Queue: 3 jobs
Job 1
Amino acid sequence: MTFTSALSGRDLLDGAATSIATLLAHWMERALGTDVNTTIVGSLTWADLCVMLCLALMVLFVNLVAYAFVRHKLREAASKAQGPTLQHHVFGAIDKPLYVLIWIFGVYLVATPLMMKAAPSEGLQILRSVFSRAFDLGAFAILFWLFFRFTHVLEAQLSIWTSRSSSKLDDLFVPLVGKSLRTIVPVVGIIFALPILGLPPEYASVLGKGTSILLIVAVAIILFQGVKLVEKAVLAEYDITAADNLRARKVYTQIHVLSKLLYAIVSIFTVASVLMLFPEVRQFGTSILASAGVVGIILGFAAQKTIANLFAGFQLAMTQPIRLDDVVIVENEWGRVEEITLTYVVIRIWDDRRLVVPLSYFIEKPFQNWTRVSAELLGSVFVWVDYTLPVSELRKALKEIIEPNPLWDRRFWNLQVTDSTDRAMQLRVLATSADSSKGWDLRCDIREKLIAYIQTHHPGSLPQFRAQVDSERPDRPVTP
């Protein structure tokens, strides 16, 4: 829609409004007499008020008819099928824009006869110009609002068609098309609406750059949406909350790192494209390229840590020494990998603290990964007891403690004497668990129940000091 076509359409509407107003005024004069031409304020007469009231009632009647028609079609579409059909989507899309468009035309019809009859003046001309442009912009906005709502209709219809296909690419393509159209339509609407504003020619270059920036940003948004949809489509195949989520955590780690890298690349190219629209920046860019070797060396030294982290991110995504939700020991802290960015890793420590570690740390320094291959762990419990404790009896008691315990994964357990001193012996209990959290709780439970059993059944077998008294030499000190 150009400004010229909008102007000719508005002239046609002005002529129709004037003709309708003249015909209504003639009928009123014949029905009510010449008294209806009595002036109220300025050139406004009772006939003019009646004409405006009649036009307003006509607009209201048309709006009610349109409302009844649309509602009838919606009920008719709902009664034919269980789910929403194309007819239901179409009439649902034109519902609100149609009512607003009717009222915009109605207000213009009601106001046009009055403004045409008013005495010409500079202020009135300005008012007419503002009113006309407001009408053009309103009608234009409603038109693109309708286009915007029809993108949902198109997306819904494509979803119906692709639901009959077994290909999973359709589930990725349809939302991308809908979101892309909903991004492009407002931008195109703004670009086409600018001529209607009738701005002076000196603003043409500014508007041209503004519209170019809008298009670049719109393309960037579409690329962001595409990356996000691909990420969701890939991750939907894997359940990271499952008990055996090793494969899922591998994929999650790779996809998150790669998607963030793509976001960064798109952002850099978007900013660069916007800056290249300005001649000053282009000239500055030429100067920089002329000395690219020196600048590259300087930037290489200045950003070597950042670059190292970026390459470490690639290496982590591919080799995966750590993954999301891995249990790790870093800097003598036990925690889980909560987030992996392009430059650092966030470790959620067991007491809800966060340890932020650069990516290069996991390439250059050793650390423990308790879930590298599997989450299953072998836990140990150490207890010091006296030599009088019967180990075989304690082993039978330990069996009754471990085997009914739901934290034990039923793979392995044992009890052995692993050390001894001149005063006590050390017992070591080994027991397996499904993961580190259950392993910690299992070890604590075994330790508590084992000590309680010794206290109850063999209280004299707890670690103790012995002393020997020499009765033949009372002056000799006691030897511990």
Note: The domain at 246-369 is CATH 2.30.30.60 (SH3 type barrels.).
Job 2
Amino acid sequence: MDYQEALAFLQEASKFGMNLGLERIKELLKRLGDPQACGIKYVHVGGTNGKGSTAAFVASILQAAGFKVGFFSSPHLHSYCERMKINWLDITEDRVADLLSSIKPYLAAMVADGFEPPTEFEISTVVAFCYFAQENVDWVVLEVGLGGELDATNVIVPEVSIITNVALDHVAQLGKSIEAIAKTKAGIIKENQPVISGVTGVAEKIIKERVNDLKAPLYLAGRDFCWQIFEQNLAFQVFSCSFGQKKLENLKINFLGRHQVQNAALAVATAVLLNLSEDAIRKGLEQTKWPGRLEILCTKPLVLLDGAHNVHGMRSLSVALTDYWPNKKPVAVLSMLGDKDRENALAVILPHLSHAVITRPPSTRAKKWDKLADICRAAQVPTEIEQDIKKACQIGLRLAKEKNEMLLVTGSLYMLAEARQYLPELLKEGNY
């Protein structure tokens, strides 16, 4: 297979949708010689929000400490190759094609032997394990895809598990309560292996029960480590972080938003637990990049992109808008997938907006995407509907210019990724 054929093969596998469970991936890995169990050390990162950013911070710190670091996350923004990195270099298209070509006969043999076909995410996870094993990486930072206990990534024993937080999301797959979702996410905790977490409330109780059962040391934000923000501006944030007897002052991240400081603090606690140097922590934090999260794409006009796609994410975005732009009422290009809690998520962000442009996320899960307009109008927010994302961005830019306001693009990472490709061209041409 070439790269395009490999993507088509993955697309075909995606028809099996979300099918949680470990039997298929364990069988496929066994047939491939268990590449995930070849002496690589892992950090496993789960949670409802912030797991991608936290994983990125951890991977950058490990790299700054001199290790060869694999990184696996999903979904991607612009290219499938973004999902697998070694020392922040994306896997090449040719390598993806080669790996999938080598795995394909084992998949066919599995199905011939009566096993269910693995899902697209399971195949991608296996590709990542094979890639990292072949490249002899020292560490892999592995982001959970969905949930935890039955997620395809949950076939490793990590040096540290991180659970960023627990909120209501993917309720159809994970459960309709915080308790149920917390139990699922706690499934990545392994016996005697330490856990770093920012969970609170009921979720904290569930996590504590799990670590007690497994005799796993637990380090909680606010109890075992804490942080304080000293400076926030539109380029970076400076904070301190204390963990036990160790206090690190004047740490810097090139991210916006208080929630990103918490994500960074989870990474710092992990690094301290792994006995990484203060110099590596500082360098790693400052070198971390993670696009699409409170990303300022342009300053004149001001264009902000944020991948907030659920209630918890919208709350973090809302706080950031108040912190950084208290006098602004953005025009927003909005879309959300049909399986999200749209009404409650929009209820958080709509009071900040002067106008909304509703567009369709490029996903099979975009059901009744235009119903967002009804929610916006019910909240007295003037609203346009435009299915084409590029045209929606043009309308948003024009309205922002007319109102002398900022443009906010948010609600679906899939839509945001496409908008992020169109916006630089539109801004350069002034074609709006």
Note: The first strand starts at residue 41 and ends at 46.
Job 3
Amino acid sequence: MPMPKRCRLLPRLCGLAILWVLAVPWTGSVLAADFTIGYLQLEKDPRYSKPRSYARYLGQSLGRPYQGAKVALGEVKFHGTAAGVRFVLKRRRVKHAQAMVRAAAELTEDGVRFLLVDAPADVLHRLSEHTEEQNIVLFNISARSDPLRTTQCAKHLLHVIPSHAMLADALVQYLVSRKWREALVLVGPTPADVALAGSFTRAAKRLGVKIVAQKPFELSNDPRRRKRNNIALLTAGEDYDVVFIADADGEFARNAAYRTVLPRPVIGADGLTAMAWHWAYERHGAPQLEKRFEKAAGRHMASVDWAAWLAVKAIASAVQRTSSADFQVLRRYLLSQELELDGFKGHRSNFRPWNGQLRQPLLLATHNWVIGKAPIEGFLHRTNNLDTLGFSQQEVSCAR
């Protein structure tokens, strides 16, 4: 190879420069140790089934949240520089709960200590029970079940996705702010529907909203069951300010707006709902995150995508702030009140010490607009206003 012209003129200087380059240690990502973040996913998860996606419950996932974790991975490349690590994701798809337990054990044997889990509440609970004595931290990115935060909470389980109770509190705060003090509740036949209605009832009771009636609905074309499948009949005979629909599948709720006997807003599964993320939020840098996600995934970002994104950011932030890759150091920091996460929603977030739930503001939105953010102004807490959403320490029975 011919020598560059400058080196022909100044050979001694070029030689010294080459020796200097060879002598200086290379600190780039090529020599960085891999810091692997695990990702566990149930293959045939009914929450992402095509029929349910077609019904399109307003707060429902639009796709698997793994895309959110991948976007975050691209954003945290430099977080591990001080600790000399490079972040990588290792995803495992499993067919059932026992397989997820085995996959978690295999990842742990390979040195993986932080795992994002996309699974229904029952599968996640089983996984947390089988891994409680292991040196790992599980991040719940999609299960909103209230019992996971009250009676089934585990000391190594952190919830990034908000609970049903948090979502209901956000909605009821908005009702109170608008002086809509009387609600008609329509509840479906499934256990998930009943759980949603229970969360709303709890929130209404604690904030002074009266439930004038609770009526069961049934998704059926059977004319003999008109009293349970006809929205006009279901909303007749009562006076109310708002109709709350507890419909985990969303198929009944999507036909309710503008068909109630009284001209009243519909909330819950349709109309107005509370969620961790909405693509139309326009403040605090949210549009930039939304654009990055849409470019990567080809769709809008949903709450579970945001939860997966923030879980990866939380791990990377802990590595950056502590300049360490040691599990115990990172775990202590993640559980401490020193942790401050920017979720692009205007408040710094961290995990509640009594049940591992992420403190966070929630967005109140329709299909294409964000009309407010909770906690609503005026709802105060003695230490942190974000704790007006969800379970207080006194409501949690499990020790951490």
Note: The domain at 166-274 is CATH 3.40.50.2300 (Rossmann fold).
